[in-house]
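Q: My labmate handed me this sequence with no annotations at all. I'd like to see what the chain might look like in three dimensions before we decide whether it's worth expressing. Could you predict it?
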Amino acid sequence: MLSMTLQEWEEILKQWGEPKFRAKQIFDWLHKKQITEIDEMTNISKGLREKLKQNGKIACVKQVKKLVSQIDGTTKYLFEVENGLIIESVFMRYHYGNTACISTQVGCRMGCSFCASTLNGVERNLTAGEMLSQIYEMQKDTGERISSVVLMGSGEPLDNYENVLRFICLANDKNGLCLGQRHITLSTCGLVEKIYDLLEQDLQITLAVSLHAPNDAIRQKIMPIAKKYKMQEILQACKEYSDKTKRRVTLEYALIQDINDSDACAEELASKLHHMLCHVNLIPVNDVKERNYRKSSEERVQKFASLMEKKGIETTVRRKLGSDIDAACGQLRKSYHSFS
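A: Here is what I predict for the chain of 340 residues:
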């Protein structure tokens, strides 16, 4: 039920012979009051509530456990979805508002070698309702509104394309969460065909592409997807995306010691980006105990950023949040592993 649009509710209630205004009431219960049980719809007749039970369900995520960072107050949630599967989500506070980092799949099939989310592959896609439910449950638990969302938890959003598009539509609906598209960031490792599909939707979301290397040779060592899509193809897709939407593309770059953090890497990367409306977000790689990568030193990170800036490429270093509870970039998983 959480995955249905208001228009879909209107259509199904019309088929059931119910008045149109019932659709708005049901949608309000689901997305403004954010109920978890159909019987909580107190202004809906018992007969209609029974029909709803017979024909559908509210597939909410359930909080299993949470950890609060002692460093910065970031909160990581373990949520259970149907079939007992586990996903992780993160609630972060910034001076400009609260951000939710949500998952789009249980696990991930992309295989990036510095990321915990992909260690055991993918179990299944999440529905749009399950994505929304992560936000709703975090808001209920904290008592605070979430003003921006990043699709950067476990999973590759463009590998779950239709459900993610539906999520964006529902999150943006003025009758529901009413989250502006410019407050939604979709992060992808670079599925080129899907970037072009997304471009045709003419959305105002922020596209973030995980680049993590200045060339194909290095990228193929750390990202299996790079064997399918060349950097030239990805950057061309990003340029066309920004040209059409007039939205700056974020290029994410995880700095790994002695792999992709040299001066030469910075200069090569900058040379490929000078013609693009983009922003580079440097991320000192986070610890994943199954991986052997080490993050770059603070001095190296700042030198890399400085070289990019000197070449005219807008560059920032991502603020590290929740590292003491494995809630930082690349550390989210699909099990209890990180709590053991």
